[in-house]
Amino acid sequence: MTKQHRTTHLQMIPVDQIAVLNPRDRNGREFEQIISNIRSLGLKKPVTVTPRSDLEEGKQYLLICGEGRLKAFKSLDEKEIPALVVEVDDEDAFIMSLSENIARRAYRPLELLAGIEQLSNQGYDKRIIAQKTGLSLDYVKGILLLLEKGEERLLVAVEGGRVPLNAAITIASADSDETVQKALQDAYESGKLRGGQLMQVRRILQRRNTLGKSIAHGPARKGSSVTATSLVRNYQHEVERQKLMVKKAEFAQQRLLFVIEALRQLLADEHFSNLLRAEGLDTLPKQLAERVWPGGRAA
Amino acid sequence: MSQSPLGFIPDPLTLPLDRILPSRRIPDGILASRKFKQIIASLEEVGLIEPLSVSKANRASRQHLLLDGHTRLLALRQLGYAEAPCLVATDDESYTYNNRINRISSIQEHQMLRRAVERGVSASRLAKALNVDVSQIHKKVGLLDGICPEAVEMLKDQHFSTGLGAVLRKLKTTRQIECVELMLTANNLTAAYAHALLAATPSHLLASEAKPKKMRGVTAEQMAKMEREMGNLQGQLKLVEKSYGQDVLLLVLARGYLGKLIDNKAVFRFLSRRQPDVLSEFEGIIQTVALDGK
Description:
The complex is a heterodimer.
Chain A: E1 9-14, E2 18-20, H1 28-41, E3 47-51, E4 61-65, H2 67-75, E5 80-85, H3 90-102, H4 109-121, H5 126-133, H6 137-148, H7 152-159, H8 165-173, H9 177-189, H10 195-211, H11 228-268, H12 270-279, H13 286-292
Parallel strand pairs in A: 2-4, 3-5
Antiparallel strand pairs in A: 1-5, 3-4
Chain B: E1 13-16, E2 20-22, H1 34-46, E3 52-54, E4 64-68, H2 70-78, E5 83-88, H3 95-99, H4 106-118, H5 123-129, H6 134-141, H7 149-155, H8 163-168, H9 173-185, H10 191-199, H11 220-263, H12 265-274, H13 276-288
Parallel strand pairs in B: 2-4, 3-5
Antiparallel strand pairs in B: 1-5, 3-4
């Protein structure tokens, strides 16, 4: 005799008869996403509940999994939700609910995006893929382009929200370092890329240059116990890293201040500014101009 | 009746495992991973919780494409199940199932475990279902004991090791906040780094009067030096963190502009005659400024 699964049945249950056993505080953004997915694509899975006769306020079921889905249904003003009903005691219900939240594997970004690639391989048009997944057409197009070019590093960064898709596409289409820098500059000037994101892009580009486009997972790091040497090593490593960061930052700042001051003085010279105007070079990049003339350009 | 459409046929099926066709490859190393062992353990303790999601059967082969539950299918096979409860989806995409998974944060996990244990769930059964030692459950339940609300708030959405709490609670409140801030800035929430910070904490900022256990192999001078150095760096790092990205970008922009200036013969002549020093600095910047200001 092989192992058997617990018997369940599926039924529609009024949302206000369900009490949440062990609530998980979700952040607002996650929740918004669940709602909009359900609204556009429908509920993809039922919730799981167990019946109880001793609950307050007319509740008849305890929710085991699907808190996000239940809340979303309520806020979409649905009266009933499809639910799998199982007969388990409180302890099992708690353990099931915790297992559902904890004993699950976080998908790697490329695994997630494989779902898009697969639909494309099945022959679906980009527009249809966008409809099926609730993603925008531009996003689907961009992801498929990056997949085609084998840009795994950029894909991982885009999926994690660290690099805007359009910047990734430009980088992938650029054929030299110079084009990449130009692309970054454009992205920055048009406001598509902001401070912290730029650093991310830089790091990803460095790795892409030295290690290639694809990513290879090394073996998982082992947790090690703390010893005096590991403590000092860890500390020194962190200190070195932070010192380097501070040094780089100071160096960048000095150079920048020099450029700004030099430009300000040069441009105050009438001969120089006339010369630039004559040569069509008198327009500074916007962000730079704001630093050279903090209060706006003197007439 | 429901207005929101259903993405599945509301009639669960039980399918033999060999009629379920995986739609993608499972990454290498999953079978040996801690998470996989945890999924196996939870299946053994409380069984399969949610059915797998499959597409409609292929007419010829009668096989269903698996949309959601690749890891669980592997686990069911390994445990010797012959069948799996399934829901048939109305669509054939597999993207949205996984996309919605949000990994539970360490603090959410702590709250849910604590509530369960307070309601009388046996810690040893929890430990079994989650494939951890029972001491780990107790540590997670007590994760935030002695940690100030401000630090908790900062760690709310983070994933960090259970050992972090034990280190933080040895610090006084203000130092807790400072350390968590520093760890977030450095993007390093490991217990090892927390230990290093603890070692670099002056004794008047420790929660208990007792001196911390002396680490063998770390001299008093080393400790004192670590303490000073860390203090200085924390301040500096916070200052530059905000401006660094902006500075580098402006430098890149400036480099482009300066390049255009110097490529222009008339401007070049002007500068070499009147401002030779500035010109040579500009040339140096154009040649050497990489994106990170090196």
